[in-house]
Amino acid sequence: MSSVAMAEPAAHAVDRHPKGLYVLFATEMWERFSFYSMLAMFTLYVQDATEGFGWTQDRATTIYSNYLMFVYASPLIGGWLADKKLGYRRAVMIGGFFFMAGHLLLSFRSVPIMYTALVCLVIGNGFFKPNVSTMVGRLYPEGSHLKDRAFLIFYMGINIGAFLGPVVAEVVKTRFGFHPAFAVAAGGMLISVSLLWKFKHLVEGPERGSAPVSALRKAPAAAVTTDAPPPEGSGRAAAYSNPIDAVPDWKRIAALIVIFLIAIVFWMAFHQNGSTWTYFADKNTDWSVSGIISNAINPFWIIALVLPLSWFWRWLDRKGKEPSTPTKMVFGILLTALAYFIMYLAGKAGGDFGKVSPLWLINAYMVISLGELMLSPMALSLVSKVAPIRMRGLMMGGWFFATAMGNKLTAIGVYWDDWLHSTFFAVVGGILVATALLLVVLLKPLKKAMPGI
Fold first, then answer.
1. What is the 3-state secondary structure (H, E, C) of the chain?
2. 160-217 per-position pLDDT tens digit
3. What is the pLDDT of residue 72?
4. CA angle at 83 for the pair 79 and 89, rounded to the nearest 5°
5. Which residue segment(s) compose the domain that 193 sits in?
6. What is the four-CA torsion angle of 384, 16, 453, 243, rounded to 10 degrees?
7. How many domains is the chain partitioned into structurally?
8. How far apart are CA 222 and CA 202, in angstroms?
9. Is 65 exposed, middle or buried (0-12, 13-18, 19+ CB in 10 A)?
């Protein structure tokens, strides 16, 4: 067979997503099902005097912010362990078992057991979350134009699980109570781990030291196919055609740190969904369900918007007009601010403490979901493309550490009942606008540090 004939299927393969993407899609979908069903219920559960502990709203908000801080800080350690010791798939499996234990423990009513469960969930997330995201990036050769769209598809899996979780939690909690609903979350993790184990051959390449599976994955790209961390020194030892590879490692890391700092503000605002936005849905929205169900609105919009947005980026890419990843993030923060200003108007419409139509919440979630799509999957892809290969798991952990700091700042929700609701939404919206303006100022130096991204 001629070399030309052999090159044709190889070139075709470059334009197709590997089957491993869909395995990781399903693995993450069921993990997020369990994670978000728990998160949708948690603040309302601990305040419930019958099944929970009768805590105040401020105490519930505080433990929520601390839990999320540790949840999103733990990937910094989990990513490092995967990079240096465990390999990515093994780390994800370990995380899954800790997740199952945590959700099962929450099905028992006991404060000490609850704290033990939260510790298990923190450890589980540390091993699972950064490494499953890293595995997605490693399915593709360096410089692949498919990565952004792969992370959008992966993000759909996240949000299908995140949509189903609160819906199932609302139904089970209404019929059987909080504790059986927490047990159902453990079932989601069992499915997740089972899928990854059964189809592990689709997400792993050859063991380190063996020949690469195709000519597309030679030299540094071969590191993408293996579950083991890439060999030390494999960074720019070979010739690359990707412009980012000419940038020194320190400059790439510095650019990522700037992105991480900007992201802190975004996550401070976005993850109000499990506290203040849930309280608004529970007490200030005129419908016949609890605030738990409101946590399904955001993933619903993500599912509805992700493919049109992916098509839109592809259309712009063909015209050579697709904006850079940092520019997409500016739009993401501004859209998040707009969602808060919609909620400001909702607060005003209800006289700040009365009930309003659920359309206010649904529309605000539509806008914040579009903002999320402009920022979160783009940033995951950015880390995968910008971080030096030997530090990819660690830098993915750094992204989640920035998310952790933002989640700690969700503690601003303790002012929810001290301020007018409209004032709370306006303050957070103003902080987001200021952050977006700062990122606009930094766009030029960031683009120099991340050419072609």
1. CCHHHHHHHHHHHHCCCCHHHHHHHHHHHHHHHHHHHHHHHHHHHHHCCCCCCCCCHHHHHHHHHHHHHHHHHHHHHHHHHHHHHHCHHHHHHHHHHHHHHHHHHCCCCCHHHHHHHHHHHHHHHHHHHHHHHHHHHCCCCCCCCCHHHHHHHHHHHHHHHHHHHHHHHHHHHHHHCHHHHHHHHHHHHHHHHHHHHHCHHHCCCCCCCCCCCCHHHCHHHHHHHCCCCCCCCCCCCCCCCCHHHHCCHHHHHHHHHHHHHHHHHHHHHHHHHHCHHHHHHHHCECCCCCHHHHHHHHHHHHHHHHHHHHHHHHHHHHCCCCCCHHHHHHHHHHHHHHHHHHHHHHHHHCCCCCCECHHHHHHHHHHHHHHHHHHHHHHHHHHHHHCCHHHHHHHHHHHHHHHHHHHHHHHHHHHCCCCCHHHHHHHHHHHHHHHHHHHHHHHHHHHHHCCCC
2. 999 999 999 999 999 999 999 999 988 888 898 888 888 888 887 533 333 333 333 3
3. 81
4. 80
5. 17-201+220-231+242-449
6. 90
7. 1
8. 15
9. buried
The C-alpha atoms of residue 393 and residue 76 are separated, in whole angstroms, by 8
Give the pLDDT confidence of 78-116 residue by residue, as tens digits: 888 888 888 888 888 899 899 999 999 998 999 999 999
**Taken in order 401, 368, 63, 436, is the CA torsion positive or negative?**
positive
16-57 pLDDT tens trace? 788 888 889 998 999 999 999 999 999 999 999 999 999 999
In sequence order, the 6+-apart residues with CB closer than 8 A to the CB of 400 are: 72, 73, 74, 75, 76, 79, 129, 130
210 part of a folded domain: no
Sign of CA dihedral 111, 116, 122, 125: negative
CATH of the domain at 110: 1.20.1250.20
Burial category of 38 from C-beta neighbours within 10 Å (exposed 0-12, middle 13-18, buried 19 and up): buried
Token code pair at residue 139: 């399915």
Instruction: List 285's β-bridge partners, or say none.
Output: 356
In a domain, 328, yes or no: yes
In angstroms, the CA 45 to CA 326 distance is 38
For the CA atoms of the chain, what is the radius of gyration?
22
What is the distance, to the nearest Å, from the Cα of residue 191 to the centroid of all Cα atoms in its chain?
Answer: 20
CA distance 400 to 70: 10
Residue 193 forms part of a structural domain: yes
Q: Please, are residues 355 and 285 in contact by the beta-carbon 8 Å criterion?
A: yes
